[in-house]
Design goal:
Largest sheet: 6 strands, parallel
CATH topology: Rossmann fold
Number of domains: 1
Number of helices: 6
Bound molecules: magnesium ion, zinc ion
Distance between the termini: 30 Å
CATH superfamily: HAD superfamily/HAD-like
Strand order of the largest sheet: 3-2-1-4-5-6
Order of helices and strands: EHEHHEHEHEEH
Length: 186
């Protein structure tokens, strides 16, 4: 056996609320999940291109005491099951449960969750992307040196006054983001 160099896999990191499902302020029940149009096709395309598909989501509803980590896990499982029935696979969900004043290391735009995923899955950052509906997501992607795509669903970048950053692309919805990735990937 020779020396084996493990080459990392590219990933697409995704926001959840406003990107995969309709933006609702506090999602505390799976009945509030409304999957946005084009999402199953978009996830399937990313699967087919060989990307890991990893959700990175801030859920301060947990820190606020409106729900629990376990219940959020169940909600994510409902989303996972629904998509997987359509042949669209989410490889992992990473959740920050904190409120912004908790000063954790994982709430976007901090990189705690992305760093954990990169380590666990041996992700090749230089060929990876972040898709989100908030400028907070774009800021997160930039800090992690990912290529970034803003979708015009959900908040459509309306938090621009807090995070004044430029995404690599701005597209109508998640499917267009996946198609953009299909075009520019190496
Ligand atoms: Mg969002
Ligand atoms: Zn956190």
């Amino acid at each position: 056996m020779g020396v084996h160099v493990k080459v990392g896999r590219p990933a697409v990191f995704l926001d959840r609320d406003g990107t995969l499902v309709a933006q609702v302020d506090d999602i505390i029940n799976s009945s509030q999940l409304k999957i946005l149009s084009g999402v199953p096709d978009g996830v399937r395309l990313l699967n087919r291109l060989g990307f890991l598909v990893i959700v990175i989501t801030n859920q301060p509803v947990i820190g606020k005491g409106l729900t629990t980590r376990t219940k959020v896990k169940k909600i994510n499982k409902v989303l996972y099951n629904w998509l997987s029935k359509k042949g669209a696979i989410i490889d992992a969900f990473y959740v920050c449960p904190h409120r912004h004043w908790d000063r954790c290391a994982c709430r976007k735009p901090k990189l705690g969750l992305i760093n954990a995923a990169v380590k666990k899955y041996n992700i090749d950052i230089t060929n990876s992307f972040f898709i989100g509906d908030d400028m907070r997501d774009i800021e997160t992607g930039k800090r992690a040196r990912l290529k970034t795509i803003l979708v015009k669903t959900g908040n459509a970048g309306r938090d621009r006054r807090y995070f004044d950053v430029k995404p690599n692309a701005i597209v109508r919805n998640f499917l267009f983001a996946a198609k953009f990735i299909a075009r520019v990937r190496k």
